[in-house]
User: Fold this.
Amino acid sequence: MDPALRSHAATLDDLRRGLADLAMDGLLGSDPALDGRYGGNARRIWRTEMESRLAHLAEAVACGRPGLFASHASWSAEALRTRGVPESDIRAHMEQLSVAVAAELPDTAAAAVGPYLVEGARALERPFSGAGLLDGEGRESTLARLYLLHLLQRDKEQATALALDALRGGLPLGDVYERVLAPAMAEIGRMWHMQEASIADEHYCTAATRSIVAQLRVAASGQARPADGRRAICCSVAGDMHEVGIRMVADLLEIDGWSVEFLGCNVPAGEVVMSVEERSATPASAFHLVVASASTTLALRSLGDLVATMRASPFASAVPLLVGGGALAEEPGLGATLGADAVAHSLRDAVVQAGLLVPSRASRLPR
Assistant:
């Protein structure tokens, strides 16, 4: 990450609350009827929205990627539209954010951040391209739709049976994860964001899927290759509370012959490096790969921190870093910009990329 851009992002972080207040004052001052349209709650509602815009703006600036903020602005605007928010209010809150940033940030920071806000405003004018994620045809798409339907109906037993039956019917674990469970989880996230599902729905589906993944892991043990001596550590970076996806990656690596230490979600960079360093003294237990996930844009700086912390360690710097997650899917080349050794674009691609970074002993033997 560019140090100057990270500094501008840090300035946005430091001033976020004040910027949101200033923008909110401008919004209320420009439209005296605003508060009445929201039952006297306009400040509370829109200030929350503005803080969210500023948080995502800071991450996009730190990464040097205006497109990240444009995607967030477009996605958020569509969610507001589904809640019946007038188009004029959506545009006005972005305009007032631009005014506040230009007024309060130091000149150098304001000049750097301004183009990102311009891209965000332009994104509001373009038709939203997002759609349901389960529109595909074929057996796996049908299974994914049925799996999600069972969970939304609070029928965990049927969802479990569907997933296990698919596995026992010959579908490899990677396909069950990537073509059935992962699309269903992405769809419930989209539904929650668009107010088509409740927070309770999303939490139930996530908790149930976490349990079902554990059962699938046991049921698929017969598919596993013998351990080949490669060892990996898997986690989600600091601030990322999502762990189902990286748990699936860990399982697929184990099926491929890796020994995996799974640390779960929200793991600080220093803890990852400490784990690598502690094992490095003993070759038989040393890690050969770190696999880290950043599921949301707000975790990108944490991913950059992990890269920097690993590179600063005499031991961890020799271990390749494989990254993935939804935050990296929106912007091609972002993983390389952050300094990762490779980027996985899907669950199964994580296994492929891991094998390229650390080939198994068998793959290195002459034929």
Summary: Residues 3-30 form the longest helix (28 residues). The radius of gyration is 22 Å.
